[in-house]
């Protein structure tokens, strides 16, 4: 495991906008709901309700490129695993060790699993007709 295991009991919430098309933007509707720290009852940040629209470039991205991007995402999760585990613990109050060793480990494995299957669909080229 290459992630730096450093427990941060008060991680900085860096962004509370939506990341769409490589930039952070506000919700179009402006609707948001609060994220509450279950241990203290304090508001951590506001989360947007309607961040995505149909027509995302992801829908038309080649499957092999999707696989590459999913693997990159898993690598970034691994790089920042301790910070992400601290945020997860702050958000829902579970033990840091569960966030780090269970939630994020399974998340990385899931992304890598689906990245491996990307591009493996024999029907992708439309040569198989029913």
From TrEMBL:
Gene3D superfamilies: Aldehyde Dehydrogenase, Chain A, domain 1
Any one GO molecular function term: aldehyde dehydrogenase (NAD+) activity
Statement: the UniProt record of this protein carries the keyword Oxidoreductase: yes
Pfam families: Aldedh (PF00171)
Domain Aldehyde dehydrogenase: 33-120
Keyword Nucleotide-binding (UniProt): no
Enzyme Commission number: 1.2.1.3
Keywords, alphabetical: Oxidoreductase
Name assigned to this protein: Aldehyde dehydrogenase, mitochondrial
Organism: Desmophyllum pertusum
Lineage: Eukaryota, Metazoa, Cnidaria, Anthozoa, Hexacorallia
């Amino acid at each position: 495991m290459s992630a730096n295991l450093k427990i941060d009991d008060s991680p900085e919430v860096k962004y509370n906008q939506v990341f769409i098309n490589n930039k952070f933007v506000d919700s179009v509707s402006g609707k948001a709901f609060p994220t509450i720290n279950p241990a203290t009852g304090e508001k951590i940040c506001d989360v947007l309700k309607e961040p995505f629209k149909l027509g995302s470039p992801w829908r038309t991205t080649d499957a092999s490129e999707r696989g590459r991007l999913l693997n990159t995402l898993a690598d970034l999760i691994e790089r920042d695993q301790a910070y992400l585990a601290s945020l997860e613990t702050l958000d829902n109050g579970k033990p840091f060790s569960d966030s780090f060793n269970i939630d994020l480990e399974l998340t990385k494995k899931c992304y890598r699993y689906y990245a491996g299957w990307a591009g493996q669909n024999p029907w992708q080229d439309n040569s198989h007709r029913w």
